[in-house]
Batch of 2 targets.
Target 1
Amino acid sequence: MSSRARRVVGLGTGVVVCVGALTLAISRLDGTRIVASLLAVRPGWMIAGAVCYLLLLPLWALQWSLIAPRTPRSGPRDMLAVVAMTSSILNTTPFLVGESAAVLFLVSRAGLDRMQSVGVLVMDQLLVGLAKVGVLALAYTLVSPAEWLTRGLGVLVLLLAAALVGALVSRRYVPSVREVLARGVSPGAIALAFVKKATEAAAMLCVQRAFGIHLELSSVILVLAALNLATLVPVSPGNLGIYEGAVVVAYRHYGVALETATAIAVVQHAVYFAVLALPGYGWLAREGVIRARLATS
């Protein structure tokens, strides 16, 4: 069996396991309580949550415009198209497809060369990893540290250290990577990594309030920490099932009813997907029309 076939089989197995586990879990829930929770949702808070999630795209675009080497098309406006299209692919396709698409978009839309584009992705993941370590460390100080939180923080620190070593080695031999890393360690780029996490936490807090749940702020930090760990390695497209499970586990830690926690998880993921995955398809469709016109001219 070829390596590609093994990846396809592995992905298919992961999706089947996730969907099967999710189906089994749903079959044990009280459907009427879930429906009641959904009907009681407050639309104002839900809209506020969607707006917070939507802000992640321009923040992401601004961060990439700071990281990327200067070109006539690497400003925040063009980067917004790049990150929106990248987000759409990342949230609807298997592992590594979104990353490959990001390189393509950075080359074709932002005017970077291939190595510069790879450098932007590497620096982006370093900054994401740094922000995740910050979230887990904050959760560790605010919540009675569970075993999974302690181990997760340790694993994430080791992965971040390994990625940093790899980036520093690449910096020595690849000039374009050296330039991206130098730009990526700027205070603005680092600050935006944490602002993005704070914005995501604010969105989760709004969804929580939409369901009439009023827990301490640490609950949102724990949900975010659980998601950061559960989605560290994508198993299913869009982290379907994994995302919901992480949210449910975090809310059950605070005694939220299983049905209510499940409803929050499903709605939160749906809002996240709608806001971060759908807008990019408008740019993708437009790019397709433009390419078709150029091809026929």
Target 2
Amino acid sequence: IHDYEGFEGAPVEEYSSFETVFALAEFIEEHGPLGGKVLEHFSGDIEDAKTAFEDYSGEYECLENFAHDLAEQTGAEIPEGFAPYIDYAAMGRDIELNGDIFTIEMRFDEIHVFWVR
């Protein structure tokens, strides 16, 4: 295989089997460009990519928005006077640095968040 346009970054090797290429193409067709980027993240391992989509948290403009939504989903009641002091950007960054999530950035304002098992 010498041309693999349309695989959205998923690794296609020169001697990949037809079954592997078909499975990659099928996965990308199902999940679109994001699927290709997730496959790239997992070095083409389709099983790991499928598992990642089971733990997909959603699309966000930035990690700060993800952390804010996460705080709201957990039901943590933050007193109104303390709310301005919470640094959601740092919280989101720390969640990623701790290895609890990984992100795929499609554009500068489009981040997809996946929980790590």
